[in-house]
Design brief:
Strand order of the largest sheet: 16-15-17-13-18
CATH superfamily of one domain: Dipeptide-binding Protein, Domain 3
Number of helices: 19
CATH class of one domain: Alpha Beta
Strand content: 15-25%
């Protein structure tokens, strides 16, 4: 072999490892800051997008199946279920390990059934003050609420060592739940890795009050860096078990079948690192994608849809760079919450109901869709969203109605008139009527606020805005310290009852931020939980929707389209329907040296 060939061979041998070491990095941005990574403390979508990549529940969703399908994750198989849907038994797969952490004192820590018991007990611990406790409580897990009450009554720390009949480790790898009422869809609860993934007690006790910054689970990624409200970095867990890409898209699902053909059998995660920036303003977030600083943008801002997708097609200047798009109606809802404990518009008396309904009738949703959302939404008729059980595209209600004339008539009828002649309506007792709307400083919120002002001016109602960042608004809402707040919610499971938590009195201050507490609605919610799917349960959905319109504790606004755009290096992306975890299910071409 000539000296030249030898030299080339040596160069190739040296270059190969160097190129192979180039990390695969997925980069994109959240539009709202995270809050914490302690599952007991989160209820926001953005924190819940991070945590299921770190923690794992017994079950997960098939990434490509549409409609959604649940499959085992850390469990050996789907649960064994009693005929009355009250006893659920889960076998955990041996040989799954937590990521190494100082809390384990140098020992390799295996996942066991007791870790799921402990994780659930943390939601019941009064010291956790979990906003999700109300939701957990609705599952009717035997003895769990009683264990919580004992701690409250005794004013003593929660006893994690006393057995709770409804959640037990029968042996090292067998987990059993006992429910007070039938819960035919309880398996969805067991598939929520973002909330109910396994947590090691040693880790919680080691980090104490700082546990929200030290998430340690069995999942495919670990938290590597975190600058609050600025950047989140996750890296592939070196201890993650052998797991390969597999899915079951429908036979006629061309997109899903193409992804499966390309990735089936690949070891996951396929990428080495995920870098999430927090960019609240729409223009910088869009520019970060255009400039190649982000590999994808999960939701093209409405302001830029016309230039990104003219005529519903990817703009030529983007398509020429290999950029593609995915557009789907989301299983989500935007809404205006009315604080039912507010002294001005809260309550159940006819005058307060009339005020909330008048505000709703004076809200021009069609204009919001056209002007603020650039056509990227459809009017909502109820909180129940597309793609979930209980959604009826034929259902119509006053939620989508815009009638300033009817709104003014309602206000006049119940005494909300201009008593002092200043041109603005007053309360029936003569005091000034001023609506205080919580809002955020980003551009989209400013546009929505301006539309609010215009709508209410037409009705003769003054509006004042309380501007704070989203995490601050959430804290205020949980404490009941607000009058009106606009929020969005996305489905977390295939059943529409999840969003109806917002009407359940038992969940006031948690998922029910409006603090609506109507006995009839509470009864309907409980009945729905116990019934299997079918006509009787769908009839209860209809009743719940009608009651929501009648009392108007919140005003359903729109279901949004989501248009994702991807640079060509991203392979296998498909926006999940109800779950948040997907980073381990995509590949990204390595960065160029």
């Amino acid at each position: 072999m000539s000296r030249l060939l030898v030299a080339l061979a040596l160069l190739a041998a040296l270059a190969g490892p160097v190129l192979a070491q180039q990390p695969k990095v997925l980069r994109y941005a959240f539009r709202v800051a995270e809050t914490t990574f302690d599952p007991t403390q989160i209820s926001d979508t953005y924190s819940r997008t991070v945590t299921p990549h770190i923690f794992e529940a017994p079950y997960t969703y098939d990434h490509l199946a549409r409609p959604a399908r649940i499959r085992p994750l850390t469990a050996v198989a789907l649960p064994e279920v009693s005929d009355d849907y009250k006893v659920w038994t889960v076998k955990i797969r041996p040989g799954i390990y937590f990521t190494d952490d100082a809390a384990f004192k140098g020992q390799r820590r295996e996942l066991v059934a007791q870790d799921y018991v402990y994780a659930l007990l943390r939601f019941a611990d009064p010291a956790s003050k979990s906003p999700m406790w109300g939701y957990v409580d609705t599952m009717g897990i035997e003895g769990l609420a009683a264990a919580r009450q004992r701690a409250l009554d005794a004013q003593q720390p929660f006893d994690y060592d006393s057995p709770v009949a409804g959640v037990r480790a029968l042996d090292r790898y067998t987990l059993q739940y006992r429910l007070a009422q039938p819960r035919p869809r309880f398996v969805s609860f067991l598939a929520a890795s973002d909330l109910f993934g396994a947590v090691a007690r040693e880790v919680v006790e080691h980090y104490g009050a700082q546990i929200g910054a030290h998430p340690v689970g069995t999942g495919p990624f670990v938290l590597a860096q975190w600058r609050r409200a600025s950047q989140i970095v996750l890296e592939k867990s070196p201890a993650y078990r052998e797991r390969v890409y597999d899915a079951e898209p429908a036979a006629d699902d061309a997109e899903g079948q193409a992804i499966l053909a390309r990735l089936k059998g690949r070891r996951i995660p396929m990428i080495d690192r995920v870098e999430i920036a927090i960019i609240e303003e729409t223009q910088p977030r869009w520019l970060s994608f255009l400039n190649g600083q982000a590999d994808l943008i999960e939701e093209v801002p409405d302001d830029f849809m016309a230039q990104a997708m003219p005529g519903g097609q990817v703009a030529p200047y983007l398509a020429g760079q290999g950029i593609t798009a995915q557009r789907r109606i989301r299983p989500d809802i935007t809404m205006h919450l009315f604080n039912m404990e507010d002294p001005v518009l809260g309550g159940y008396t006819p005058d307060r109901v009339a005020l909330r309904r008048a505000i709703s009738l004076g809200t021009d949703v069609a204009r919001e869709i056209d002007v603020v959302r650039r056509g990227q939404a459809i009017a909502a008729q109820s909180l129940v969203m597309p793609h979930v059980y209980g959604y009826d595209p034929a259902f119509k209600s006053e939620m989508s109605a815009y009638s300033p004339a009817r709104a003014k008539a309602l206000l006049d009828l119940y005494g909300y008139t201009d008593r002092d002649g200043d041109g603005w309506r007053d309360l029936p007792d003569g005091q000034s009527l001023v609506l205080v709307v919580n809002s955020s400083p980003d551009q989209a919120s400013r546009q929505t606020a301006e539309l609010w002002r215009r709508n209410m001016t037409v009705l003769g109602i003054r509006v004042r805005f309380d501007i704070k960042k989203w995490p601050e608004q959430l804290r205020a809402a949980r404490a009941g310290q607000y009058m009106i707040w606009g929020v969005a919610s996305a489905a977390t499971e295939p059943d529409g009852q999840t969003v109806l938590q917002r009407y359940d009195g038992a969940q006031s201050g948690g998922q029910n931020l409006s603090r609506f507490n109507l006995p009839e609605m509470n009864r309907i919610y409980q009945q729905m939980s116990a019934l299997p799917d079918g006509p009787e349960r769908l009839a209860l959905f209809e009743q719940a929707k009608r009651l929501a319109v009648a009392y108007m504790p919140m005003r359903a606004m729109v279901h949004r389209y989501a248009t994702a755009m991807l640079w060509p290096q991203v392979v296998g992306y498909r926006k999940p329907l109800f779950w948040q975890e997907w980073w381990h299910m995509v590949d990204v071409a390595p960065a160029k040296p």
